[in-house]
Amino acid sequence: MCQKHTEISQNPSHFEGSAEELKTATTVQANYTDYIKDMKFFDPHIHMTSRTTDDYTALIDAGVVAIIEPAFWLGQPRTGLASFKDYFSSLVGWERFRSSQFGIKHYCTIGLNSREANNEALAAEVMEILPIFLYKEGVVGVGEIGFDDQTAAEEKYYRLQLELAKEANLPVQVHTPHRDKKKGTELSMAIALEHGIDPGMVIIDHNNEETVESVLDQGFWAAFTIYPFTKMGNERMVEIVKKYGSERIMVNSAADWGISDPLAVPKTAALMKIKGISDEDIRKVTYQNAIDAFAQSGQINIADFETPMEIDQSLKYNGNTVLRGGQIPRVDKDSIIIS
Length: 339
Ligand SMILES: [Zn+2]
What we know:
Largest sheet: 8 strands, parallel
Strand order of the largest sheet: 1-2-3-4-5-6-7-8
Order of helices and strands: HHEHEHHEHEHEHEHEHEHHHEE
Radius of gyration: 19 Å
Bound molecules: zinc ion
Distance between the termini: 10 Å
């Protein structure tokens, strides 16, 4: 508990600015978990491969019962097909098992990320193995794909992967670029429509105030990433929900190997509660909408995480376990709270 409170106070981006916001920060610091006590959360974009077991524990303690891990860039370029293969395998294998060991249901999306689409020789090889993984259990979409530098190669592989999604009847999780975001977002949507993809099957991610209206108007899902120390803090997220309501809007952490906050979804829910957003609207943007969007894959069964998952850390995955020598496995059949 104390750890969470410290994190909030060390994270001024969520509460920077006015005296009123500072007051909110103090309130949240004192009562953060009280505001979200009985709430459940679904984080539709989080890269757990890069996170620790402490993060898993913090997530389940805060009520995050299910997550989606999109395939993405690892921070340095991959040099061969085998590392893509092993990475995709870990998303549907080891990482899913690791998540289950902390009582969290793990799904993933599989795709060639925009950055590595620029290595055309390798990208062509990756395209050939994508269908092997897209049809596996627990794969809820093609993602995260789209534009980074908005190059011709990125466009080519975005288009090819949209066709794969169409064929597999899977939702598409679109990463929008950090530079020239407005242009990249519009282009991503136009291309999806050109390929005859139903906008209701496309989740446009990393939105901001400049992009949200057009995304919603055209019938796409609008996802928002709450990054610490950037423009899209959760104070602004509250304002977006006040202005646009909760239809087709969802919040995620996109936590990865960079500076990010895996608890962004429950923290934003707490802030929304304090700011007078209704429980139903909070539930939609931090839980239900993500489920509705990605359940179109046919791969999400709410019963798997609606009630607390059984935790049995004596289980093994291919002979490997999350435990280290001498640790006693936690076998917890009843409680969602791990102490
Ligand atoms: Zn991501």
